[in-house]
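cache lookup: miss for this entity combination. No prior model stored, computing from scratch. Input as submitted by user K.M.:
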Amino acid sequence: MKFKCQFPLMTSPTPFRTTLWRVLLVQIVTLALLWLLQSRYMLPGS
Amino acid sequence: MHWVNWLIIAVWLGYIVWDGLRRSRGTSDIEGYFLADRQLPWWAVGLSVMATQLSAITLIGTTGQGATDGLRFIQFYFGLPIAMVILGVTIVPFLHGAKVYTAYEYLERRFDPKTRSLTSLLFLLSRGMSSGTIIAAPAVVFSAIFGWDIQWSVVLIGVPAIAYTIVGGARAVAWADVKQMYLIVSAMFVLVVVLLYRMPVPVDDALRIAGAAGRLRVFDFSFNVTETYTFWSGIIGGTFLMLSYFGTDQSQVQRYLAARSVNEARSSLLMSAYWKIPLQAMILLIGVLIFLYYLFQPAPMLFNPRHDALVREAEPSAYTALQTRYDAAVVQRRAAAQSAADARRTGNATQVTQALEQFRARDEDVNSVRTEALAAASRVSGESSRDVNYIVPRFVLDELPLGFAGVFLAAVFAAAMSSIAAELNSLSTASIVDFYQRWFKPEASSAHYLRAGKITTTMWGIFACVVATYAATLGSLIEVVNRFGSFFYGSILGVFILAMIPRARALGAFTGMLVGMASVAAVSFGAPSVSFLWHNVIGAVVVVVVGLALSPFAPLPATTSELAISTANR
């Protein structure tokens, strides 16, 4: 028996894929803000 | 504590129980009781998923960790959004499409009954014990703060949650979680506003002082498998841990199995993907703000009042000497912090750096005295002396205006209840569906299973309360169970990964799981310094490799239609 692709969501453009990009964007923005917080306020060696 | 605060807590607990009882109407069968008739909207399921994960100890322990250790704990969650996205396109469609009650039920359809029973049994063992520790952790803190016997704290946390879970089932649990999350997030925003309002120096100066004390270090890019809180541990180990927790742990899986459709189940998980890291950052930042607040206000030397009283009584002269040194160190640190804030306004970079270096040295002096005081507390009480979990409750009770403490403590109760309710609900489901119905009484009526579900919820509730009450004396046993749990978490994930690979067979999955658990146990005992986050990676990889290697030697299953079950039902 041949099996179809188990994850069609990964192979077709769906609203879910758009949501995934949004998730990625939110995480990048959050990590960038945390990075800014660290680099602006941390003393070297602390 | 003022009676107004108690009234707020009592009103909240009463409201949650009343609402749970109200929502029990119309629940007449097993699907309604265990899965809310699969009719919950995505946002309610999403909030329920988040509330289940956010326990009371997250609220008081993680904020305390922010105060003492800063923001670096956030790295633990870096894998969560990745895991949620992966689950959204893999396990969620499989499980939701298969119309199962438990995640393990799917493993019987895909492999065989023994794989299902073993994974479900491991879940019951670990979650059964952890349900006790979920109640015990805040109960111990409340007992020390209010001077109660621990059983009263256990009753106050456990009984309302057990009551609405028994009567209302999954629907009551989910809608209670929604309200609990609103309260928890509101209480955190209130704390942030109060802390910022009361900060005696401008926020920018305060953050610079926090930075000098190392509290704003977020990223550690070193690749060290013995460190839990590094970028790579969080991204790699954390992803595997979150895949295991949200993808194979019934306490979470049951939340999104109750969603109306696959898409709504996915969206509910993505709510955590969006908000978990920002929410966790806020929790840790509250801790940092409390650290800053106590730089300028009198802070207790020992935040655990019971330990403070014990040391004062058992070693009075040593206590007085420590307190004198502590007071002097605190005064010097406060002056150094103020100087650092003032230096910023001069605009002289060298002066600012020198002032912050001075502050850092004074902060180390304070920490050094506190370390000695904590060692004395440990010596006298015979207990762990870490008082991280007591910092926020003490701040809330001593410093917040009337009523605010009641709101925050109600949020702590809410966090504990939402976690324990979801665990009881899932423990009952796994007990009935994977064992009672599967092995003992397969053909009974739905009403019979509903009654049985309520009875098992009651039994697991009583078990959790008993474990919580004796948690202090069961300490080593609980540690053993937790360690045992870490052996199989990654291995169960490995079995679910195999379930999605068409050429994997039951023999490979079952044997792979046993080898995976043995491998993690070997690493855990042979190299105990390896962080537990990597155990999940090791377990999952070993199961998949062994499972695929053995599968060609196993007979083909009688039917392979289950493999396409998710796509067929989508």
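stored under new cache key. Chain A touches chain B at residues 1, 3-4, 6-10, 16, 19-20, 22-24, 26-27, 30-31, 34-35, 37-38, 40-43, 46 (CB under 8 Å).
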